[in-house]
Amino acid sequence: MRVQMTPKTVRRLLSADGYLDLGMPERAIEELDKIADAGPLEGPTKLMHGIALKQVGQFPEAINQLEKAARIMPKPIRRFAWRELVDAYRAVGSMELAEMAEKLGGSGEFQLKIALPFADMTLDIPSHPKAP
């Protein structure tokens, strides 16, 4: 069974990525909220949604999205989601979970690039500065 992703979903995901790059997480959230079924792009969608929600201070909602991304993304990329969860857990006072996420996220710097199937595009999801 072949899973289809719609051009509209890809456009919304790319728009959200652009809004995050421009420091406009509210607009990114608006785009991501319009995606009804991300299909094979569910992992990147959840990851970006979590990052955007974290940037606007909606930490419980960000945790929900980032935890889902960490569960469904492939192993090397999942580390990125765990790293994003560290600050979100701390913001809600879950120090033990933050410590666990820190271990699961590993150390070292990297930039996440997600290649879109059948497209000459990648989504660059840079590691964003840590929240205070």
Order of helices and strands: HHHHHHEE
Query: Within the CATH hierarchy, at the fold level, what is the topology?
Result: Serine Threonine Protein Phosphatase 5, Tetratricopeptide repeat
Span between termini: 46 Å
- The secondary structure category is mainly alpha
Percent of residues in helices comes to: 55-70%
User: Could you tell me the number of beta strands?
Assistant: 2
> Could you name the CATH class?
Mainly Alpha
Number of helices: 6
Portion in strands: 5-15%
- Provide the number of structural domains: 1
- Radius of gyration of CA atoms, rounded to a whole number: 14 Å
Mean pLDDT: 85
Low-confidence stretches: none
